[in-house]
Design brief:
CATH superfamily of the largest domain: P-loop containing nucleotide triphosphate hydrolases
Family: Belongs to the ABC transporter superfamily.
Strand order of the largest sheet: 6-7-8-3-9-10
Shape: globular
GO molecular function: ATP binding; ATP hydrolysis activity
CATH architecture of the largest domain: 3-Layer(aba) Sandwich
Largest sheet: 6 strands, mixed
Catalytic activity: ATP + H2O = ADP + phosphate + H(+)
Function: Part of the ABC transporter FtsEX involved in cellular division. Has ATPase activity. Essential for cell division and viability.
CATH topology of the largest domain: Rossmann fold
Number of helices: 12
Keywords: Amino-acid transport, ATP-binding, Cell membrane, Membrane, Nucleotide-binding, Translocase, Transport
Strand content: 25-35%
Number of domains: 2
CATH class of the largest domain: Alpha Beta
Bound molecules: adenosine-5'-triphosphate
Amino acid sequence: MSFIELHHVKKEFQGKEGLVSAVNNVSLTIEKGEIFGIVGYSGAGKSTLIRLLNGLEQPTSGEVIIGQQDVVELKGAKLRDYRKRVGMVFQHFNLLWSRTVRENIVLPLELEGMAREEREARATELIQLVGLKGREEAYPAQLSGGQKQRVGIARALANKPDILLCDEATSALDPQTTDEVLELLLTINRQLNLTIVLITHEMHVIRKICHRVAVMEAGKVVETGEVLQVFHSPQQAVTKRFVQQELLPENEPTDQSIDYLIQKYPQGVILQLKFTGAQSKEPVISKVIKQTNVDLNVLQGTIQQNQKASFGTMLVQVTGTKEEVAAAFAYFKEQEVGVEVKHHE
Ligand SMILES: Nc1ncnc2c1ncn2[C@@H]1O[C@H](COP(=O)(O)OP(=O)(O)OP(=O)(O)O)[C@@H](O)[C@H]1O
């Protein structure tokens, strides 16, 4: 049995214009220690799904089983106890502005009635874990966005939860801070073997840290799989749009930039290489040079890494004899690197 199991879960709301199927027949399994991403556009049903996982909503039908416990059956004190096992991280941090970093972090422990000494020791541990040492006495207003989210994460971890649910946890942060917070989540996942479920409308968040992903559209999970596989061969139109969002537009060279490069580097061929995460761990660039004897000049490119592979596009100038260049072309194909000729002499 998986750690989290959803079986045919439906959640309907009575909206102004009739019944809304916010979550429509979703079945999912999530393993212990996994970082599982749920991606979808606004209104797809992600927040409702999260609220079903933390017991804030009851499904209209279906089962939500976590650690072999049917969450739907929990009531009163048992439901409150269950909620403590689930940490929540929010997009807008939800910190108390009149409390310091340390006071925000210990809040759930205070509510739990933990003795002062014990909770202070736990807070010190958490502050260390999330990298806020030295900022304990600061107030939220004195912190950067990334630091505020670190407080949010520490507070979510205070009760030593079994699951961390992140609701657009990085959507209010700039790209660099987003990366730092994602790194922190990855560290926590590894150190504590904590199961993390995160929802987002940003595919790069999924690429960066998730093991598996479910794509939601109109209340349904339309596609699910290993992140690498979904990136490499997205099946549904909505998934293709999300994957495109990742490769375009910043990472894709524009026609003008290609024209400029062709003028500047008229010799040989100019190839556009696309790394979609399917490649083996081979050092493709150095190997192609050694094996085929071509000269290869990297003109432009953005290659990013996720947990397991490289993604992105690269423009290269390849020079050599006709046979050497053809061999290089064949090598890229064999390595499952997408290759397109942009220019040849
Ligand atoms: N309490 C509610 N009452 C009525 N309709 C609701 C309620 N909660 C959600 N919905 C509707 O259910 C659908 C899914 O909403 P949900 O918030 O889960 O989507 P989402 O993917 O999280 O989008 P967003 O990121 O915009 O919150 C939407 O059409 C929304 O209007």
